[in-house]
Please model this.
Amino acid sequence: MTEHPDDYEKAMENIRNKLALLPDQPGCYLMKNSEGTIIYVGKAKVLKNRVRSYFTGSHDGKTQRLVTDIRDFEYIVTASNMEALILECNLIKTHYPRYNVLLKDDKTYPYIKITNDTHPRLEVTRRVLKDKAKYFGPYPNAFAAQQTKKLLDRLYPLRKCMNIPNQACLYYHIGQCLGPCVEDVTAAQNEAMIQEITRFLNGGHEEIKRDLQQRMGEAAEALEFERAKELRDQIISIDALMEKQNITTADNMDRDVFGYAVDKGWMSVQILYMRQGKMIQRNSSTFPYYGTAYDDFMSFVSQYYSENSALPREIYLPDDDSEQAAEVSAENGADALGAWLKLKVNIPKRGSKKKLVEMAMQNAHIALDEKFKLIERDEERSVKAAQNLGEWIGLGSLHRIEAFDNSNIQGTDPVSAMVVFIDGKPARKEYRKYKIKTVVGPDDYGTMREVIRRRYERVLKENLPMPDLVVVDGGRGQISAAVDVLENELGLFIPVCGLVKDEKHRTAQLMVGDPAEVVPLKRDSQEFYLLQRIQDEVHRFAITFHREQRGKSMITSKLDSIPGIGEKRRKALLKHFGSLKKIKEASIEDFRPLSIGEKLASQIIQALQEES
Model:
């Protein structure tokens, strides 16, 4: 909806008046758009200076987008920077502002858990509960957690079943469970394994490996070669899992090391995980940011630890070397974060600890560069594929491609859909859906004629962009129908091609012209891959629309056709019973809670049973 100029002027006048009243105190500010939605949350040591900076001077493109959307703001004064940091984190998690760095649910990381049961078991979970269980992590990715759990399952035969069964399972027979279902497993046996697992996950895998090597030697001397082989395989598994732990510190401390990089309105944050002084993994997150770089970086860190409650002993952060560093020093931010999390937060200035932060910063720069190179490469390949496809067809470059697909089941609820690809990439805002109006029954050619006619009559009437190529789903018949409408009815000479599928419903051939001829594209070429993407996308879009319409028509035909059933009662029936099947199977008495009498209830049941 277009904003009226008078509304804009009123909003700007209101902002100017509020800017004059801002206090010289720390706090959080909330930027709002024309609809009153909170679009950005920030914190400041001096609210007056920080908020005013958005409305004075020049900004880069990304910040200008934020400023352009602001129509109002409010602020909350806090007693300290620490309170502002905590409040900002809570406000972001409450409102999910579109311009903030948002740590979504999929950024909660997995942990390995030893349950607090009589017969404990190992789990991988993303939720840390106050259930007296033991949690280890977080792990940078689910795969690392699952691989570690698999290794521990082989090493230590804790209970595997969710609920203890009545008979022994496969894990018992292969030696990976002591079998509390059939054996008398003591608390001492379980506790001994828990201690070993705890020692392993806290970095004591070398000691455990030495113990396994000794047991392997003893088994070999006793000629128990199968057992020796099992122990050898366990040692190999430990080596494989821990082979990346090659960066160490002498203090054996658990710490997370952060670095970040910014470019082109994007930020990359790198976390290096050190456990027991050993670097075990790293994690990278890349996202657009709209505030000042260091503030949004600190916002990410605070959100990260609010979502992942198992904390290290220490955190290393980089210093803030930006022009805005004078307002809130990095040390103040680190102190506030440390006081909130109740752990040590350091900004190393020299030595090996500083080098760890520099490593994290370097990795963040590399990750960001890689992202931009991949984007450029993808764009280049998409544009090149569209150009080459045009040359194959004899058209030169193909800037705009419009593709159509029809969907119906034996002629019921026929629909069609159009997708648009520009320079080889989908332009989803220009997709269109069509309910078929003039065609009765399963007439694919008639459906194609109607949709082509409706689309390009509108293109002519509204002077919309003309495509360089029209793609239809099908062969000679569909191409001929589309060409006939375009040329003989509308006077348009747009090239039309058809995508023919094989018996497995996969793109098999490209046909062009009327009469249509096959274009000999290689199946492993970028041009053929582009055609597959176009056909898959338009088919997906058409099928989704058809399912929507079919679902609506099924409900309409079976309930709305019954006298006395309107939209309100239909919704009440479906909500009460849950499905048409349950309505059909209901008794007369079951309808009384909905204030439906015996006569109408009988009509409903009879109508549904007649249609089945």
